[in-house]
Amino acid sequence: MSLALTTPPTDAPPRRTLGDVYRRLTDLCEVLSVRVAEPGEEAGQAGVTAAELASEPAVLEAFVDAEAARIQDRYTVAARRDAAASRALHDYAWSVALLMSGPWYLERRVPRIRAEELRLDLDSAVFTLTPGTDFACLPDDADAGLPDALTVPHEEALRAELRKVVADHMAPLLAAIGPLVRRGPRALWGMVSDDLVSGIWYLGRILGREGDAVRAATALLPSSVAPYPGGADFRYLTTPDGQRHPTRTRAGCCMYYTIRPDEACSTCPRTCDAERLRRLEG
């Protein structure tokens, strides 16, 4: 492959780095606790890498301990060990999935986040992401010719890449944490499915494009696609004013109901449609 792109002509569009879209994403999503490392910055020393979480049992135990401490501090509840592990996994999966699905939704680019590129400060629950250079894109992307770009022929191929990179990143952690959450592979991948879908849904809402995000998430997971056990499965509820609101029922449980029994998530199987409508009306 030619390296001429390293010195583009003056009229060529400027190269968009993955760091640029990550910063746009974190600016948009206030609840995404991620710091994007600057170019040339050494990887932060604080925290643990995603690789360490998946390969070192003591680090994984500390990951769960830190979540249990946050639950105790925030809710004054001593969480069950499996519930603390589930909550920690849910936050991790939602954040990591959105870091890869966000660039796909915003710019039709799918980055691959390697385990060594992501660190988590256990005390603050803040991630530090050192942007890599590997990404998949469509042929009309301005940077499709870069050495680390994987050009795929169409939108469905790009969706397949997104499903793959999220699964590749999450698989080692799911294998390691399964005994702590006390659930099998189907339930664990159900949680990842939920977090992948809900991150896109959330991003669409904050952009004022909820309907578009629902369609995008449905195209990404129209049904069960291995290893994801179920599709986006959106449906609609109608409030008395005639407005239709998308909702779905989670395939995997984040265990929040064990901490606040009267405040189960709006997409929890325990939350009936009447309660969902009451919250929408409120």
UniProtKB/TrEMBL annotation:
It comes from the Bacteria. This is (2Fe-2S)-binding protein. It comes from Streptomyces shaanxiensis. Residues 250-270 form the Ferric siderophore reductase C-terminal domain.
